[in-house]
Amino acid sequence: MIEPEIRTLPGNLQGQLARITEIFERRRPAEDFVRAPGEPGLDLSTSEAERRAALQREIGELHPADVAYILEALPPEQRLEIWNLVKADQDGEILLEVSDPVRESLLADMDRPEIIAAAEQLDADELAELAEDLPEDVLEELMHRLNAEQRGRVQSAMSWEDDQVGAIMDFDMVTLREDVTLETVLRYLRRLKELPHQTDKLFVVNKDTVLTGVLPIRWLLVNDPAREVREVMAADANTFRPEDDVAEVAQAFERYDLVTAPVVDIEGRLIGRLTIDAMVDVIREESDAEVRERFGLREDEDIFASVWSSLRNRWAWLAINLVTAFIASRVIGVFEDSIHQLVALATLMPIVAGIGGNSGNQTITMIVRALALGRLSLAGARRLLRKELGVALANGVIWGGVIGIVAWLLYDNPALGAVMTAAMVLNLMLAALMGVAIPMTLLRFHRDPAMGSSVMITAITDSGGFFIFLGLATLFLV
User: Fold this and answer.
1) Quick one: fold of 13-34+41-160?
2) Which segments of the chain have a pLDDT < 50?
3) How much is the pLDDT for 26?
4) Distance between CA atoms of residues 161 and 157, nearest Å
5) Which DSSP symbol is given to 274?
6) Rounded CA gap, 98 and 90, in Å?
7) What global pTM score does this model have?
8) Whole-Å CA distances, 210 to 149, 204, 205, 259, 260
9) With the CA atoms of 56, 58, 63 and 68 taken in that order, what torsion angle do they form, in degrees rounded to the nearest 10?
């Protein structure tokens, strides 16, 4: 009997990272090794060897996903040093786990034989995921090394867009016929070296590989072995098509508590399966992309990327923000005489703009999240707008009244307090209106509803807040 390998994982990955960082920081600077005449020479190779051995001990038993986490958290020079200490049989898995920018930097440090050796460890679906980052000549050689079936699977996965099910489906699965007994199925499973990862059900197909049902493992274990598969299987399984959107499928996995699900073509033939670990990756990537889009980042960015790379990723919306900030400053300039006559306006107007921006971001966050989960459509926008305007009105009256009283007491001016309250109400309602309108408009034009939404709402509530508050003050106070 083969003893299972027991891998001790760190209870705190942050602590593991801290220890690795500490080892790097213990490296003595070159000037420390300058010796005076007659002083015995220092063995630098021993010190370096000990440091590398310490790093090797820290990462030696880590899961590939944990190594990927550590690589992403280290500066480029330290990252490459750790990468060169990684066991060769983990290279492929780690390349799949790291973010795209980090993967590019690691591949750039590898020579052709190293890349081929790492990629050969991967299954067909995993190789397809890595393919777009591989040099063309390397990918061509890898395809030549695959058998016809594997090559067909890789080409099939590569033919789909990144946001389609076909690009992430797994080809490693167990199929069986419905006219065999459960005892036969059990004997067949015992002959396998191991079951594919995340196997919670077996797929039942006919002679034409058309899916006819699924047999959950738990049903296989608790039923009479003499019964046939057709008597026990579930014929109404959740199935997906390769052209389905992965974000919608991930929601279905969450909704139905799925672990795996079959993927079938237009004629119902089984062509692959989806697994929960792939869906978790999709959900995480969707969440990360939503956050980036809201704040105007165009793509995933390595936190230790070069200045030029980060500049290219961030400049566009910063330029737009500069224009909107200039517009806001001109709005203030229009009311310069009013501010000179009543200096209190200069100290109070940021409050109106800031509260409006926060309220608008709250609304946009809720709307974008509802759109991402498929819980909101254009048809429901009017009802949602009425609700958000009602919330803004109530918040404006309550908190605008509070700050209005504070302004009255601070400056002994009840009219100023009333203007402050009115400006707060109006700016919160503007924030609610734009918080709904911005993502819904982007959706109508088939753009990502989160794209730059935080930048746009802040610009509008700043300029609008200044204009409303200073305009009311000019009409009623100056």
Assistant:
1) MgtE N-terminal fold (1.25.60)
2) 1-10, 29-46
3) 75
4) 9
5) E
6) 12
7) 0.71
8) 19, 8, 5, 21, 18
9) -80
Q: Give residue 407's Cα distance to chain centre.
A: 44
Half-sphere exposure of 6 (CA within 13 A, CB side): 2
**What does the buried/exposed string (b/e) look like for 437-449 if buried means 16 or more CB atoms within 10 Å of the residue's CB?**
bbbbebbeeeebb
Domain assignments of the chain as residue spans, ordered by start: 13-34+41-160, 175-294, 307-476
Q: Going by DSSP bridges, is the β-strand pair 270-275/260-264 parallel, antiparallel, or unpaired?
A: antiparallel
Determine the topology of domain 307-476 in CATH: Tetracycline Repressor; domain 2 (1.10.357)
Distance CA 176, CA 442 (A): 47
The one-letter code for the residue type at 121 is: Q
In CATH terms, is domain 175-294 a member of 3.10.580.10?
Answer: yes
SS (H, E, C) 166-215: HHCCECCCCEECCCCEHHHHHHHHHHCCCCCCCCCEEEEECCCCEEEEEE
Distances (CA, A) of 110 to 48, 66, 114, 132: 22, 21, 6, 16
Same fold yes or no, 13-34+41-160 and 175-294: no
Q: Nearest 10 degrees: CA dihedral of 411, 415, 417, 420?
A: -120
Q: What is the pLDDT of residue 261?
A: 96
Residue 291 parent element (H or E): helix 276-294
The Cα–Cα gap between 356 and 362 comes to 10
Query: Cα separation of 430 and 469, whole Å?
Result: 13
The end-to-end CA distance of the chain, in Å, is 91
Sequence-ordered list of residues with C-beta below 8 angstroms from that of 305, at least 6 positions apart, any chain: 101, 313
Q: What is the pLDDT of residue 38?
A: 47
Helix, strand, coil tally for the chain in percent (to 5)? 65, 5, 30
